[in-house]
Amino acid sequence: QTIPATLISGDGIGPEIMSSVTTVMKALDAPFVWEHHAAGMGALEAEGTPLPESTLDSLRRTGLALKGPLTTPVGTGFRSINVTLRQQFGLYANLRPTKTIVPGGRFENVDLVVVRENIEGLYAAMEHYLPVGDDPEAVAYGAGFNTRAECNRIVRFAFEYAVANNRKKVTLVHKANILKILSGIFLHEGRRVAAEYEGRIAVEERIVDACAMELVIKPENYDVIVTTNLFGDILSDLAAGLVGGLGMAPGANIGEKVAVFEAVHGSAPDIAGKGVANPLALMMAGSMMLAHVGRQDLSGRLDMAIEQVVTSGGIRTRDLGGTATTQDVTQALLQAIQ
Ligand code: NAI
Ligand code: MG
Question: What structural domains does the chain harbor?
Fold first, then answer.
């Protein structure tokens, strides 16, 4: 059975790492039939818009995309394409797994997932200046909102993810001691959802600042973390830093009808075109995508191949302290898959 999927190669190192992923997907006999579409700087130059209607149409049809990094055009007045996609398609859950794969780092057994609420909270962009005296910008005022329905939905997503992926514990991360209403609604709703999973999935609560400290001291204590937009943004980057950085960090943006899989990193203009980019973050996003469509078998095979290549194979790109090229990694993966 084949599955149509939108493929956006993206800018900078995007085409290089995407070609690595599609080559490996083909060797795996993955079910995806790719619909190639443009977005980002490349699309702006070719079609006059960074997010062409044909790309949106494809996404509406397939409900599934693998996306390379997009350079946000500076000074054109366009909003971030990533933010636009999230809001257009209601991609409410941002899923960021973090696992130690490369040995010899600071931690050997990190294996956690951050589930970040992706469309509410303090990123609602409700902010403006207030004048005092003759200074029109004397005070910066900002507000955010969290709805009960969305808090319920994101915490439920985290618990369902835990059940489906054999995880044992969900930690609700909040700041309800200070933001009694804005963060309190998340904690209150989170507790209600957690009660439905009693006896199946353990629940813990952490205040976000304490959580940040514990993450860098004892990340093994964490399994699934669920939290609101701003806290999730910060904690998921922090977590990526525990296991080798951006080149090893995949992510998924998931909504009711559409899911977009990507690497966490950007288009890396400093190394674009040199053939030295690490394709593994996008590769792991591809693995998440396989699991998402029910092909846990292929996802597992790909994960094992990745692990084999960076551990016993010792094939590592420069960002991981090695000298391998993108091609070397692709070839090593193809061999590991056989
Ligand atoms: P970046 O993630 O592109 O690069 C930061 C540093 O990490 C650079 O030194 C780069 O060489 C390195 N790096 C990133 N990915 C790598 C990989 N796969 N292998 C080896 N090294 C890697 O972040 P930066 O420079 O802040 O942003 C560049 C552009 O990317 C900007 O236009 C930004 O808006 C965009 N961006 C897009 C994202 C997306 O589409 N999801 C996410 C982040 C940034
Ligand atoms: Mg971020």
Answer: 1-92+248-338 (3.40.718.10), 106-242 (3.40.718.10)
Ligand 2 centroid, distance to 186 Cα (angstroms): 20
Pocket (CB within 6 angstroms of ligand 1): 13, 69-72, 82, 246-247, 262, 265-271, 277-278, 281, 317, 319
**Model ipTM value:** 0.97
Give dist(CA 192, CA 68) in Å, integer: 37
Give the pTM.
0.94
Question: Does residue 175 have an active-site annotation?
Answer: yes
Question: Given phi > 0 = left and psi -120 to 50 = alpha, else beta, which region is 29?
Answer: left
- As a whole number of angstroms, the distance between CA 336 and CA 41 comes to 35
Q: pLDDT category, 225, cuts 50, 70, 90?
A: very high
Q: Average pLDDT in the 193-204 region? A: 98
Could you tell me the end-to-end alpha-carbon distance of the chain, in angstroms, rounded to an integer? 22
